[in-house]
Hints:
five-stranded mixed beta barrel, globular
Amino acid sequence: xxxxxxxxxxxxxxxxxxxxxxxxxxxxxxxxxxxxxxxxxxxxxxxxxxxxxxxxxxxxxxxxxxxxxxxxxxxxxxxxxxxxxxxxxxxxxxxxxxxxxxxxxxxxxxxxxxxxxxxxxxxxxxxxxxxxxxxxxxxxxxxxxxxxxxxxxxxxxxxxxxxxxxxxxxxxxxxxxxxxxxxxxxxxxxxxxxxxxxxxxxxxxxxxxxxxxxxxxxxxxxxxxxxxxxxxxxxxxxxxxxxxxxxxxxxxxxxxxxxxxxxxxxxxxxxxxxxxxxxxxxxxxxxxxxxxxxxxxxxxxxxxxxxxxxxxxxxxxxxxxxx
Length: 323
């Protein structure tokens, strides 16, 4: 995963000094709403997570909900689970919503063997093994009818023994393989305010969230990284949305159009796979097609997203600090 370097921070500071603070806002702190860690214990009254530097405990109230491949009770959270907790407003140690073992597989199908897929997420990331359980395969096949090599796949599920057990489709599969994607000519003067959808990804791949610093990054992977100065493995295509080229460290002012929550989010990684899709998000009746960014799990939740939904409709204002 890319990190924001000192050079990029200095560039943002220089841009703010020359063009004003609004041209290069500082990233919005989001850690007060969301915590990610490993379940140490869970009972009917309290959840204890192992987090960097120790443990953190959360109480429940009558409205607290839990998800582990579906709505569950707190007793179904298991020691060792990867968990994300959204606190109630105000920062109190009370859980509003808890997700356990949430996983996502987005990319191109490389192979299929019965109910098991191998999915290539692109841009140099490791391939994922995806299992299609019988009870969810019908729902998946309605929106992904061609589970064959070369076709795009995107589903939300849970981690299970190193594989992703797909629970629900996150998008509708294009009717053609990726190699036959219609050519979309680039827009020469892209707008700086764009409408589309925001999705999420896991920068730590479900591994050791209490120890891996990537699990706690607040930011976004972006579909249109400038090829200059970035890894050639960021294999983007012409996006459905006329996105400007940006570098890591650029700032996106992103608003969840469903909840109206907004934040300044830094670009921290490549989301080339988002440029392969031209989909809609059914949340709150959105009509703008195309993916603007993939938020890290913690940022997506902090901005009002539900991991099981996979997306929300969004408006993005780009502050690139490069113009």
